[in-house]
Structure formats: C-alpha cells, structure tokens
Amino acid sequence: MKTEQKQVLPTLTELTESARRQFYGTYQFQADAKKDFGKHGFELLAGASRETYNEKILSGYRRDFLYDNYEVIDAGADNETKDNAGSEYEWLLVSAFGRFNYNYDQKYLFEANVRNDGTSRFIGKNRWAVFPSFSAGWVVSKENFFEGLRGTISQLKFRGSWGKLGNQNISSSYYPFSEPLSLGSTSMNGVVYQTIQQLIMSNPDLKWEETTMSGVGVDLSLWKKLDLSFDLYNKKTDGILLRLNTSQLTGLEAPVQNAATVSNKGWEIGAQYNERWGDFKMNIGFNLSDVKNEIVDMKGQSSGTLLRQQVGSSVNSIYGFIADGLYQSQAEIDAGPTQFGTLKPGDIRYKDIAGAFDANGNPIGDGKITDADRTIIGSTVPRYTYGFNMGLSYKGFKLSALIQGVGKVDGYLDSHYVIPAVNSSAVKPWQLDYWTPENTDAEFPRVSLTSTNNTQNSTKWMRSAAYMRLKNVQIGYELPKSFTDNTFLQSIYLYLNGQNLLTFTDFYEGYDPEINYNLGSSDGVALGGGNYYPQVKTFSFGIDVKF
Questions:
Q1: Radius of gyration over alpha carbons of the chain, in Å?
Q2: Pick from 458, 307, 467, 509: which is nearest to 383 by CA?
Q3: Could you tell me which residues come within 8 angstroms of residue 17 by beta carbon, excluding any fewer than 6 positions away?
Q4: Which is nearest to 218 in space by CA: 140, 101, 142, 319?
Q5: Cα 221 vs. chain centroid, distance in angstroms?
Q6: Parallel, antiparallel or unpaired: strands 467-478 and 209-222
C-alpha cells in the first residue's frame, strides 16, 4: 500500500507598525493704541508671530512570528530580516509686523503696513524679506461742498493702494536650498554596502516670491438703499518658485528656482440693494469680476504636456492638437498628413500647423502631425466669475437664494471618461452618436479599443466649463411671538434648505464643470480625469430655537 505525503508550506507571518506625529504651532503677540487729537485720528499696531511645524515618522518590521495572534514587534524573529525606519521634517516662519492709520475728520484716510518675514526654507541674506504696503482714501461725501447732494448720494469714496506680499511655500519641499541626500544600500561580491547619493540639485540662491499689487476703487451709496463698488487692480508676481528643465548631464533632477513672472490684471464690480415696504423686506446683491492672467517670463523655457506653462499664455493653459473634424474616407486619409497609428475613416483629423508660413501669415503644413503641431488650445483660469444673492421676508416668512457661476473657462476630459470604448469601457448613452459608415455626421469618432490617434490631447475633448449654479435656496417661517410668550424661549424658526439644486452648463453630461479644480494637485488644477465625487444635491429641514 502506497501513501502519498503532501508537503505543507510554511506560513509567512510579518508585521509592520508605523507612527506619525505632526505638531503645528502658531503664536501671535500684538499691541495697539488709538488716540484722537481734535479732528486728527491716529491708530498704531505692532506685533510678532511665529509658526512652527514638526513631523516625525517611525516604523518597525519583523517577520516569522511563532504566535500568529501575538501582534507585537518584539515577538517576531530577531534576525537579519528585521527592519526599521524613521524621518523628521520641520519648518519655521517668523514675522514682525506693524500698521499705522491716520484720518482727518474721517474724510482723508491713510494706512501704512510693513512686515518683516523670515523662513527656514531659505538661507543667508535671502531668509528675511520686508514687505510694505500703503493705502489712501478720500470720502468726498463728507466735504462741505457735497452738502446739497447727500440726500441722493449718501456716500462717495475714492481709494487707492499699493503693496508687496511674499510667498515661501514650495510644494512639499522643506529644505529646497539643500535637498536631502538619499540613503540606501547595494550588494557587491556578497557584501552589502551603505550608499549615500544626491538625487535633486539644490539651489542655495532661492529667495521669496514677491507680488506687487496696485489698485484703485470707488464706493458709492445712493438714497441709503443702493450700494455700488468698483475695483481695478494690477498684480505682478516675480520670482515664482518652480522647477525648470536643466541639463541631463548633471544626472540630477532639476532644482526649484525663482524662475517665472506672472501678471494678473482685473476688475470687480458689486451692487447691493435694500428696500422695505411695511412688513415686506428685500435685499438683492450682485458681483462680477474678471482677470487676465499671463505668464510674462519663464527664462526662455516652457513646460507641461497637457497643462502648459508658456510665455504669453495663462498659467495652466491647455495644450494639444487642433481637431479638424473626422476623416470620412480612405481617400481623405491618403491626401492628409501622417498622423498616429493606422488611420481609418471615422478617426480624428488634426490641423497641420508646424510648417512654414505664407505671405498672409497662415501656416503651411509639413505633411506630418508631430509634437510641433501642438499649441495652446484653452485656459483653465476662470473669467467673468459672478454671484447673485437675494433675500425676501414678509412678517415671519423668509426666502433666500444664492446663484454663482463662471462665464468663460475651458474644461478637459480624456481616456475612458469621454472617449467611447477606450480602456474597454462601456459606451455611455450620451456617447452613442459615434461615427459609422451610416452615421458620418457624428459627434464622436469611430469606436476603437486600440486607436492611438483618437486619444491624443486635442480640442476634440475640450469643452466649455462655464456654468451657472443655483447653489442654495432656503425658505423658512418664524413663529409669532405669541407662541413663545410666557415661555423660556425667545424665538422658533422652521426652515427647509436645498443646496446645488440646478446647474446649467455645456460641459460633459454627468460631470461637474468645476472638475478642473483639485486642491490636492499641483497649483490646484488637475485635467483629464473624471473620477471625483460630484457636487451633491442636498435637502435639509431644521428648527432654530433661541433661548
């Protein structure tokens, strides 16, 4: 009789434990004084602040536990397989600041600010920087010659300002002036040697970014009911901290540099109207703003494949090919430029713009679509941002609403989020208008699992992300005082609230038009992906009781 013995493989048991401690401390001290001498008013403020951050990480590893359920590091094997690791990061920001205010009879206003900031992210003379600012105002409506107009114009104020601010934040790098060394090990001839290497080039000449901003504005109040304001500003940021390409001969990653200059020129208007007719009250507000963003200097370089940083364009512009419809026949393909992969009718046709130019400045194609045919095709910087708020009340009934939106901005999705069947994804109902020999006037290219041509970054997958959203609506009723008389209650207010009730946009169906803006990404912008939780439509009911 033959018996077969089965080999039982040993079970691997291992345990990793880690601990992370983060400490953020903020300390602020300030003193102020105020004194009037007749019509002269003076205010003085001085202070200092200190911000600290310390993060410590410690981990340990053991394997080959004799008792599987005893989850303690010391219970593992005390041999060459054990491991541990630890790291520590910290930064410090120290500031001294002061402010001086002067007014004469509340008609002529002046303010001066200065702050001296020091950061651990820079070294030497670049560690500290001084940032001053000044503002002045003239309340015309308080002048004697304005006396006859005060019944109509209750306030008229002109104001202007100039100032500088600094920035020392550089993504997650705590010591950009001296990038940390990488510790490791290598084995040669059976012997393990410890290694230390530098991976990122350091830059000891780093200094603060400086933003210089100037602006003028006017405030106007009519009949003590209508408030109007207008602001015009010019903001220029020099020495923006970023990484530019360096020679690969160094063998190191590019360092952070004070490399770019960006200009922002914009305006903002606001209006608020308050009215009352007996028990009926109404307030309506509106604001509209715009900004023209432009990269002025990048030391002769450009960077980015989809999100592009390029002189003459806005920060985080969209970069890609210009789509020129869909190929309808093989004859069109043969007559067109060389593109990507094997082209078939129904594929996207791209504009060939990389050749020479004719006498009128129009591009003459070179017969092939390459990276040289990519260009700036859109902008992620919102233009014409607006908001509208309304409040109505009659006796105990109240109604309020908030509408907000953006008038002009571009959005972008790619891959299986918008391209039919890419990555073996299902064809969504709104993608059914794809090209076939029977449907040549289609919105989408032919369905293909393998096409490399139709997945290129291009205007085909860019859409307007402008939108208008009914952000909030609330209706409520405050019970009459007779319900709370002779009780310990002051008031009872019942309300029904709705958020994100309606959105009007031409962006892709099912996707939030604000999908471009991801605070977890570099510069707060992410493009292409659509795997973000959408804005949630919420209804709530509440009771507000005051004692």
A1: 32
A2: 467
A3: 59, 60, 73
A4: 140
A5: 34
A6: unpaired
What is the average pLDDT across 410-423? Answer: 85
CA distance 185 to 164: 48
Do β-strands 383-394 and 280-297 pair in parallel, antiparallel, or remain unpaired?
A: antiparallel
| 112 touches 132 (CB < 8 A) | yes
Query: Binning pLDDT at 50, 70 and 90, where does residue 520 land?
Result: very low
Q: Which two tokens stand for residue 528?
A: 């292409």
Distance CA 280, CA 219 (A): 27
pLDDT in tens, 79-92: 888 889 888 888 99
Instruction: Give the torsion through C-alpha atoms of 447, 452, 458, 462, to 10 deg.
Output: 40
With CA atoms as reference, report the closest residue to 347 among 329, 326, 330.
326
Quickly tell me which residue has 């394997």 as its tokens: 63
Q: Is the pLDDT reported for residue 334 higher than 60?
A: yes
For the chain, first and last CA: distance in Å? 91
Q: Which two tokens stand for residue 69?
A: 């359920």
Whether pLDDT at 523 is above 60: no
Element (H, E) at 266: strand 256-277
Dist. CA 90–CA 88, nearest whole Å: 7
User: How many other CB atoms are there within 10 angstroms of residue 438's CB atom?
Assistant: 6
Q: Position 116: which residue type?
A: N
20-43: b (≥16 Cβ within 10 Å) or e: eeeeeeeeeeeeeeeeeeeeebee
The alpha helices in 85-172, defined as continuous H runs, are: none
Answer whether 63's CB lies under 8 Å from 13's CB: yes
Average pLDDT over residues 148-156: 88
Q: List all residues 6 or more positions away from 472 whose beta carbon is below 8 Å from its beta carbon.
A: 400, 401, 402, 497, 498, 499
Q: Closest Cα partner for 373 from 328, 331, 336, 410?
A: 336
Query: Left, alpha or beta for 417 (phi > 0: left; psi -120 to 50: alpha)?
Result: alpha
CA dihedral 7, 9, 10, 16 (to 10 degrees): 180
Find all residues with CB under 8 Å of 435, minimum gap 6, and list them. 326, 345, 346, 442, 444, 445, 446
Would you state the structure tokens that stand for residue 536, as one six-digit string? 């949630």
Contact 527, 412 (CB under 8 A): yes
